[in-house]
Amino acid sequence: MKSTYFILTLAFLTAWGSQTYGQSIKKADKRVTFYEYAIAIPVLENIIAKDKDGKQEAMELLADCYRLTGDEEKAADMYGKVIDSAGIDPINHYYYGQVLRTLGKYQEAKEQFLTYARLVPDDPKGSLFAEYCEEIYSLLNTAPKNQAHNISSLNTENSEFSPIIYKDGVLFSSDRKLKKYLNPTYDWTGAPYLNFFFATADSSSPLYDPSYAEAESFSNKLNDVYHDGTAVLNNAEDVIYFTRTIKKKGEKDQDNIITYRLKIYTSELADGKWTKAKPINLNSDTYSIGHPALSPDDNKLYFVSDMPEGFGGTDLYVSEWTEEGWGEPKNLGPVINTSENEMFPYMHEDGTLYFASAGHLGYGGLDVFYSKQEDDGWSEPVNMMAPLNSSYDDFGITFIPGLNIGLFSSNRPGGAGKDDIYAFEGLITVSGKVLACSDLGVDCVPLANATVFVLDKNTNKVNILKTDLAGHYELEVSPRSEYAIKASKEGYFSDCSSISVGNKYFTVRDLILEKPKAGKVFTVDNIYYDFDKSFIREDAKPALNNLVRIMQENPITVELSSHTDCRGSDEYNMKLSQRRAQAAVDYIIEHGVDANRITAKGYGESKPVVICNPCLSCTEEEHQLNRRTEFKIISVTPEPPPKEIEESKYLNGDLFNKDSFSKSFFEGCNFSEQLDN
Description:
six-stranded antiparallel sheet; Neuraminidase; disordered N terminus; six-stranded mixed sheet; alpha+beta
């Protein structure tokens, strides 16, 4: 169906009394007037199939019925026939455009919107949505911002939507049948009325891919005869606000129709049971309010309404709690609200407002947006992007506290029913700083315009970033992945770190860049030799490859030295250390470094880090410190850097494949920094 019962109109209309209609166009039109689309559809299909009088009108009505019940394919087919007829209402072009937009046929939709704009020049929405059909490509060409998948354990062939996290499970709205209860039918959809259901989460399933036990009716105090749905709980989880439709006597209009408004009700938890629900003081018999959401401190109530003097079909409002109850509602203003529908607000624990909108630039239907409150109002809404958003209706978002993981609703194809509940996991922001230091961690200052290479080990894609004036960089990355992060700038040694990201914001250690200086000595870790041997072992190659990379990236000449501990004769240790140093240098030369830029020097036991007097007085750990390989800069030449790391080659925001870089480019990025989530 087209999202949910609450999306297209906030008024639930019915006749005062029942009527029986025959299969004439006039009586079919009555069914549509009463929003009895499920009943009207077969009637209209019969009129068209038998080519009865009123076929043209029946086609228009049937196209609307298909659209309003979420059958976009049939709606598009029928609107395509309708617009070929003479004398049709121009609004059919607009509706056809919206259906085509939902189907992802943006250029065809654009033509319909332009036709509508030409026929109804005073209505700006034709031109607006024609522009959206061009601007959509900026969204389509953006990399995914999240991950989303259907939760099969929650969804049925009916509708499930607007989940909220509650205790050890999820509370949601559904038009599935209630067990052991009568299930009157809502003639808009042909399904039962909405009720609340609760499903307990499987504690062994991951938060980003949850599984749930079979859902059960939540409370007979909250599930009434007609629609009950879209709820929010306070922080203590002992007060609930929700949307309800009830039947009561009211004034009939000239067509003998009574309008029943959506209203917000509340209930309190007492002795483990929900009390009888009561209406809040903001309700009205002349307009509807619904879809409640609470601010993090529970003192503000956000909701949707079609009250007069709004900006469009339905707008978002806020009310503050006072001693007398909820205060005068305030419209959130034109930054949030548009000429179309805004609804399903959700307030994040950090104060960010999330909501669904059909009026801001999106993929089609309802998209989820977020906005932050600023000193002068709300920030420009930001689209949550695909795959959370689609060209169909996406709405009813909620987050697991403290995580960038949550649930939302969508009527996109491929689900179990009409509206389904999906899990999503947002990207994780990884940030860090690049510092220029005179020595390791000494006299450091932020390094602007350094190039940062971020390698995703899962995809082998490399993002390019540039640091700002504060040496800062940040990037949104996929959760539960490993990344190598390397910083480089001409005239400096590069630095590289590796991280394993969970599902929380992650700060990388500072990346330290130093300028090469003659006389600077580095100890090279992890170069091991077998006892009394000098050949290069496999486990020593990564460290030597890192030295190859350093030589390739920097215009330096070096001495590579090998040192032994004090055990063994001086002569023997001197020869052994020379053979080991030469073996390492030979390896480096074989991998592309000019032999004139590197020399081997064996020092035996002549330059110990730890003095062992006598030799046997040292521990094995101290002997290990003396057995080392060092890398000393002899001179720095003014030659230009190698082509691979020319700063001008890489621009902020570029994306490369890993094979665009040499195999040694990310050597030295050990995947050792872990984030325990």
